[in-house]
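Notebook B, p. 112. Complex prediction, attempt 2.
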Amino acid sequence: MSKKENTGKLQEGLTAKKLENFSEWFQQLILKASLADYTPVSGCMVFKPTAWAIWEKIKEETDKEFGKIGVQNVYFPLFIPESLLSKEAEHVEGFAPEVAWVTHGGNTKLGERLAVRPTSEAIMYDLYSKWIRSWRDLPLLYNQWNNVVRWEFKHPVLFLRTREFLWNELHSVFSSEKEAIKHGEKVMKAYNKITEDLMALPGIYGRKTDKEKFAGAIFSEKMHHYLPNGKMIEGTCFHYDGQNFAKAYNIKFKTKKEKEEYAYQNTHAISTRMLGAMFAIHSDDKGLIIPPKLAPNKIVIIPIRFEKNKDVLKKAKEISKILSRYNPLLDERLEVTPGYKFHEWELKGIPLKIEIGPNDLKKNQVVVVRRDNHKKITVKDKNLRKKIESELEEMQKELLKKADELLQKNLSKAEGLQDAVKKINQKKVVLVPLKNSKDIEDILKEKTKGAKTLCRPINQPKIKGKKCIISGKQADYWVYIGKSY
Amino acid sequence: MSKKENTGKLQEGLTAKKLENFSEWFQQLILKASLADYTPVSGCMVFKPTAWAIWEKIKEETDKEFGKIGVQNVYFPLFIPESLLSKEAEHVEGFAPEVAWVTHGGNTKLGERLAVRPTSEAIMYDLYSKWIRSWRDLPLLYNQWNNVVRWEFKHPVLFLRTREFLWNELHSVFSSEKEAIKHGEKVMKAYNKITEDLMALPGIYGRKTDKEKFAGAIFSEKMHHYLPNGKMIEGTCFHYDGQNFAKAYNIKFKTKKEKEEYAYQNTHAISTRMLGAMFAIHSDDKGLIIPPKLAPNKIVIIPIRFEKNKDVLKKAKEISKILSRYNPLLDERLEVTPGYKFHEWELKGIPLKIEIGPNDLKKNQVVVVRRDNHKKITVKDKNLRKKIESELEEMQKELLKKADELLQKNLSKAEGLQDAVKKINQKKVVLVPLKNSKDIEDILKEKTKGAKTLCRPINQPKIKGKKCIISGKQADYWVYIGKSY
């Protein structure tokens, strides 16, 4: 095998069903497909090779897209002094309850507590204020890929809710609001290439309500993905901070007219939570399904009855070489049966399986089986490379299509609270008219047993004459509500 | 310019001299060449785009080499519970005095303190013991790229001594000592490709004394690089742990004969300190010099008198396109003079400068200037691509050669303490006969005002009859001693 895989022990398949018991199914999927594991640190997980390779690919492709719009990567410290974190009032209020605090270095008590970064605005902007002097220094488009910690007290879920997670945080600075928002939109387009084209994840995009926006932002816009348990998970995001942080951290620049002005800022992120969303959305009761473009090994080749027929193994090796760009695994283990191998690679989500036995050898053909729909086709050797390419492409497209069908099926609309609650109980995401009010959102959460506002779609249906489903008064906007992580 | 550079303010050159005041020169170099900056967190720095791009390239190339020898990337948590860190006695003793401790999550005091990882043996091996059952699970070759924290109380130095740094840590597990050591040697060969072929850094390699070896290892071998201030800095490393950690963390496997045995382990690392070594070794009084293979932009194109001659700028753009694989910068700023530009790009270490003016245009030529030796050559357009390639190759080679000459010039040998001290005061690294004893090394440090043992070269000169320079008794080995970071 071109990459090492542990092969000794018999691997049990998934016993829980995705549609019957999502939580149990998801946990089994992650553990049995060897994507991740729990650790002795509560809420913190380990990323095993397949999951990590996928994350690295996502980073690589995001960097490519970011490079096209002028973004540069940097690295800032893990620790943020408490006084610095506290400079922007809303920001510290939003994050302080979840900060992991370092109080000692060795046996020495530190003069000031250090926050393990929950996000890096505070430390980055302090330096931005030192570096930025003139319009010539703008735009400044710095991104970092790092680990952050938010000490949540909710029940942790592998990938989806962990205390440490990894992400990119892009913190950009501009000389005008217009320029900031224009670049922010470009970033979201770049992210869409990653989530849609690579991860095959559709979503609904829109603006958060004031209650749910990022602590310190003027507005937050986010992508939301629908999980099969009816919960939405937040995806990529765009926070427009206006001059809020610039004022708190004193980021000023001289305009062309030599006037001093506070700068305008955006932040954006994509995190490892997205991996969880992707595994959950595409996989099935037999195990992992991942989009071919992200699969570290896109093919597994399984020779059949090759113990007595050396030509079979020889042919399998030839095929492996021909298809090397797909980083194929060749499973030539003798101690387990082909059936065992099929089962194992299905569980681990290799997109295409190629079987080759003595009969196929005679006929100059192989059998190709797709992981997502179990379609089995016989392919003549001379067509192999082309067919593999087209099957991978088709699989990639169909995963997105299927996920989008699931999403669309579960989007709904309601103009009354009772109807909304009914639909939420049916695991739907419901577009409702609502007033812009934190109190109303609190009542909404109570009445729906946990649903929150998700986002206000950019293209709003007519709101005039529509009544807020909580207050009965004229609503301010249409907003999606639903359960979420 | 293809990549954004801040251009507004006049940039002062280096005022300190490398050979006169290394510390001041090095700090100015790092800050003025925009490689890094200090932060409000003592001992923690920010990596700016050029330095970070170089580190990313080093990661990428290391991953390629690691892939060839079966290593896979993973990610383990940042935090390690105190009880877990304490399982291997020598290990915890070595690291505990420098651990940054997390004691609170939000307002809640944690039940157990969490160490911010100073290194990840404890958390990784705890999971290894769960995952490894049989010889079939071995070798297990897991690597991670991450950030670690060691709360040192010595004066911090940008890149060279920081409390947070980034590195890879490869923790591999084998079923025999022989296999472990064989793989460890392969890893060191892979690292050599990075340090020698890419970073152009020569070094001396050898085994650490028992006093200086890694806390918990059977033996440690390290590469050491000579800095122009006479101090050595440790580079890539190979710790062979034998079964020490396997016993502490209970990592057992069933052999082919169904016998239970403790596993054998190696660890290896390369860190961002190496960037500091590289900047320090190659750069000069005019600013940064970096090996062309690692330069994010290998060329800067400076058009001359192009304000009144549009063809000059046109030609400069053509050249930029032709040389796009070298990611050239085209400096078409009008507000600063060519002289200012030369100075700035020299300071920032772009390997090749291409000047083109109206005269060159007429003659179908450009002027190429090398950053390292200031060699200026006129190149006909038709030869440009070939000449650029050969100049970059030559520069890469010469940087290694020059660094090696510096190293060799400063290696020395001494058989008496007085001679050794004299040579150390001349900033040399001295090979001396010594007894294997912690006490003797303590005396050595005192007598030499701070020199330590560095490493015992693998190829040892004859030791029989040679007397330990401290005790006067028969020495156990030849060992390099010198000042170090």
